[in-house]
Amino acid sequence: MINRKQFLGMTAAAAGGLFLPSISSEAKASNTRTYGKINELVLTNVLLETGFDYNAQGQVWRTKTELFEIYIANGLIVSIEKNGNTKADNVLRVDMRGMLMLPGFRDMHIHIDKTFYGERWYGDPKPGRSVKDMIDLERKILPDLLVRSVEKAEMAIDLMNSQGTYFARCQTNIDPTSGLKSLENLKIALDNKKNVMGSEIVAFPQHGILYSDSEGLLREAAQMGIDYIGGLDPTTVDANMEKSLDVMVQIALDYNKGIDIHLHEGAKTGIPAIKHILKHVEANKALQGRTFISHGFALGQIEPKELDELSEQMSANGVGVISTVPLGRSMMPIPTFYKHNVSVMTGTDSIIDHWQPFGSCDMLEKAKHCAELYGWTDEFRLSRALQIATKDQVLPLNEKGERQWPKVGESADFVFVKASCSAEAVARTPVREATFYKGKKVYSRGNV
């Protein structure tokens, strides 16, 4: 078991760049295949969490770790052994020099189809801040944004990889101005990057289903390999909550898609919308586990009793929440969602565009924001904060301190950081040293 003091001593000894992973001389001599093209490798000196240490009061005060070897073949983890115990002849070995391995991150709400990322700095004044104001602006600028949208989407994917993200749920505009072109260009970018980024696509009626008469376009998009049908503020934009939501749900049912709706509305109109969605999901099992409320600010504006009741309904019907973990007045009740086992995921939203310029694509930072907002400052709760960034909210250790990740047979999707444990990683958000997707290195800072 390695504690923090030992870990810091090890990192100090590895200062001056020697900490960066390198290929062992034995591997170089026995295997001349180029790293990144092989189907098998063994990662050695991988730091994994193994349990918790408790104080006299039974509280977690430290995370225990040990060094392991991770054997990867054909994109899967095929063995996890203590250092020196992996039996694998003529297989490339990569020394990770004691870096902590964490589950790879998933950005579950991002708009890369209309980003300014890769262009000049953009801080131009906006004509207004309502959603309808922004729709009017989009109608003017979308044709120009489409010209380089493939290239910029690919650059955004590279940025996500550099932050430890291997999977993204991408929103794409479906509207009369861009037609299906945003979707077509996004699909090109995702296909070009399919070996470094897994993905899902939401057909998002950014200008309103009814407000811009986009039902026909959504139905066309539903036949073009997308995964979710989106929606937008059914009262404040579409001006007919029930009709807007009914159309969205019917398209999803007709084409066997999930639902992911942007709901920015306050409690007065947003809560009735959520309840209407829940009625549909309760009546249609095909939507259970496949329906998500993105943003959902209304849920942070109601009394605890009503929130508990709604959260229970959402959990029972597999309706999840995707939150950007907003700062300020729109603080979301994420601890309540967790209490009721509501699936909670996070995402960048936009990196830099006409909506806002603050996106970093850093899901570890989102976990840190959760810890800061809700006062999770101790070892145990900091370690729990990581779940908002990972697949199925998986954490290296379960509540009892038993290792539950990684597992043999799982896809080799993970990220390496210089930290002694996940609690430290959340609190300090160290740079990502390497990102792996399906066993392949898709990003590294050094000589991995």
TrEMBL record:
Signal peptide start-end: 1-29
One annotated GO molecular function: hydrolase activity, acting on carbon-nitrogen (but not peptide) bonds, in cyclic amidines
Record keyword Signal present: yes
Organism of origin: Myroides marinus
Boundaries of every Amidohydrolase domain copy: 196-442
Gene3D superfamilies: Metal-dependent hydrolases, Urease, subunit C, domain 1
Entry keyword set: Signal
The keyword Signal is annotated on this UniProt entry: yes
PANTHER family attached to this UniProt entry: BLL3847 PROTEIN (PTHR32027:SF9), CYTOSINE DEAMINASE (PTHR32027)
Source species, domain of life: Bacteria
Name of the protein described by the UniProt record: Deaminase
Classification lineage: Bacteria, Pseudomonadati, Bacteroidota, Flavobacteriia, Flavobacteriales
One Pfam entry name: Amidohydro_3
